[in-house]
Amino acid sequence: MIKKIFYITLFSLFTFTFNVNSAEIKCDSVVISSPDIKGDEDCKKKKISTKNAEVKFDDGSIYQGPIKKNKVNGKGKLTLKDGTVYEGKFKSNKFVQKINKKNRTFIKLNFKKPVNIQNQMKVSGLTKWYPADIVNGEFKLSKKGELMASQDEKAKQSSGGSGGSGC
User: Fold this and answer.
1) How confident is the model over 91-139, as pLDDT tens digits?
2) Alpha-carbon distance 97 to 28, whole Å?
3) Separation CA 118–CA 96 (nearest Å)
4) Which residues of 55-94 are buried (b: 16+ CB within 10 A; e: fewer)?
5) Which has the closest alpha carbon to 146: 163, 164, 121?
6) How many CA atoms lie within 13 A of 161 on its CB side?
7) Phi, psi values for residue 165, rounded to 5°
8) Residue 53 pairs with which residues in a beta bridge?
9) What is the separation of C-alpha 39 from the centre of its chain, rounded to a whole number of angstroms?
């Protein structure tokens, strides 16, 4: 009997210690778990910073890695609901996976919104990245990307030749 009480007490103490060391808090539309945070912390009053966290987004995506002032920041891993994994350096809620010099995947994370993933490409002669779709394994400008690029091309042509001060 004493042995049984001892084991129950030991198990309870272990469970209590484990739960105290691993807290879970709701922050906007995500749930953050980390041994470095307290369960009663309010992320709106005090910005959360931790070297090791798990952030569960409403869309089913999970980020594992550091958080700095309520932003994913540092070497981490994002696993989407469909199983796609993006791993590398996140900076201020952003992640870029370069495919080559002209194509990339740009991911924007936000604790208030769903994960935003956008394929982007560069257009020769222009400096910005434009929205793209992947068609048959190749990056192609999306309709929005085509519109944006054509507007930037027109703006470049109309401002390219003046060079004077107008006085």
Assistant:
1) 999 999 999 999 999 999 998 888 999 999 999 999 999 999 999 999 9
2) 26
3) 10
4) bbbeeebbbebbbbebbbbeebebebeeeeebeeebeebb
5) 121
6) 3
7) -90, -15
8) 65
9) 23
Tell me the percentage of the chain whose pLDDT exceeds 70.
82
The SS3 of residue 154 is helix
Strand partners, 88: 76
**How large is the average pLDDT for residues 140-152?**
94
Residues ≥6 apart with Cβ < 8 Å to 36: 50, 51, 52, 53
CA angle 48, 105, 49 (to 5 degrees): 10
**What pTM does this model have?**
0.75
